[in-house]
Input
Amino acid sequence: ISASGSTPPEYPLDSISALHLMMIVKEAVNNGARHATANMISVSSAVNNNQWQLVITDNGKGFAWKGQQPSKDSNGITNMTERAKAIGAEFELKSQQDKGTSIQLTIPIS
Output
């Protein structure tokens, strides 16, 4: 696992939002290690144009994903989506069979 980037210098993150954010990252990393059998997972953070972007990427087996609603068996994706909504973040998941998965969170800051 590698981590890189920057965080907003003075972004007040309340404890509930921090918990949601931490749980999204934890779920994405766990999915990469457990389900995707990835041998590389990266977490990157950047601040651009009043937005904080967190990207979690793995090189695992990926899955067929076309932006549809997660199935009832996809509790992790559903939970990440709901947690992102709760903190006002945009959640984007991209995955391709045999090409890995990328999750991007875009959090507005001001």
Q: What stands out?
A: The helical segments are 15-34, 75-86. DSSP finds two helices and five strands in the chain. Residues 62 and 100 are 4 Å apart (CA to CA). Strands lie at 2-5, 41-48, 51-58, 90-96, 100-108.
